[in-house]
From TrEMBL:
It holds the Pfam family SBP_bac_3. Keywords: Signal, Transport. PROSITE patterns: PROKAR_LIPOPROTEIN. Belongs to the bacterial solute-binding protein 3 family. The keyword Secreted does not apply. This is Glutamate ABC transporter substrate-binding protein. The lineage of its organism: Bacteria, Bacillati, Actinomycetota, Actinomycetes, Kitasatosporales. Residues 56-283 form the Solute-binding protein family 3/N-terminal domain. Residues 1-28 form the signal peptide. InterPro entries: Bact_solute-bind_prot3, Solute-binding_3/MltF_N. It comes from the Bacteria.
Amino acid sequence: MTQHRHALTMTAAIAALALGLSACGGSAAENTAGSSTAEPTFAAGTTMAELSAAGKMTIGTKFDVPLFGLKGLDGKPAGFDVEIAKIIAGELGIAPGDITWVETPSKVREEYLEQGKADLITATYTINDERRKRVTFAGPYYNAGSTLMVKSDNKDITGPQSLKDVSLKVCTATGSVDSENIKQYLDDPGKQLVLFDVYSKCADALRTGQVDAVTTDSAILLGFVSASEGKFKTVGDTFYDQPFGIGIKKGDVEFCEFVNDVLTDAEKDGSYAKAWKDSVGDAAPEVPALPRLGTCG
C-alpha cells in the first residue's frame, strides 16, 4: 500500500459489507463492496484529497452493456464496471449514493476525461498505446478479447476468417478498438463494416437481420448473449486481447497508483470477487484473477 491510501480497519470493512444488499435483493447498483464509511486522509493537493473532501464524484460507464454497465429501470447503472468504480469511490469515503453516473460510449471517453466531465471512467475501456496518448490508465482489472456474436442458428460464421464474403455485414461501436481491428478480416470494410454509437444498436441490428455479426470484446458479448434468451451465441476464439483499464486524467500518477492499490486490496479482501459474483456471476460463475497491473508513470 502506498502512502496515498488510508487503509480501512477490519471493523469498517465488515460494517460496509454488512450494509450492502444481498445479490438477490435490490439493484446491483446498490449492492457493492465499495461502500466504506471510513474517513480516509490523503496528501493535500492530490486528486484523492480533493474528491474525498468533496464527498462526491462523477464516474463514466456504459449504460447499454448487460453485466458490465447497464442502466436499469431505476435510472442507475449496474454491472461489474459499476461495482469496481464503487469500490474505488468507497476507498475515498464516497458512498454509492454520492456518485453521479454519466454515460460514456466508446467515442467520448477520452474527451470526457480531458474536459473534466468524469473523474474516472470504468466502461469496458481497453488499454492501448493510442489511448495512452490522451489518458492515464490504472489496472487492468479484467482481461477480455475480441470475438464475434451471431444468431444462434448461424452455422456459416465460425470466426473472423468467415467474414471475407463481401455480402456479410459486421457491426461494432464507433471509436472502439474493434472498429479498426476487424478491418483486416474484411474484403471491403467500406461496405461490410457498420458502426453505431452504442453496442445495443448493434445487437438490435443483428436481431433484425440488418447485420450478420457483431464484434467487440468477449465481456460485452457475454452480456448480450446472456440477455438474448438463446437468440445469440459467440463463435470462434478471441483474436485480439482487450485488457480493461480505469481511465483517469492524463499524467495523474498519484491517483493511478492509488487506484492500483485499491484493486490489489480488493482482490485480497474478497471485494473484487464479490463484485464479480454480484454482477456477472450468474452468466460466468468462475471469478477471474486480477490481471497483472501496469505501471502508472
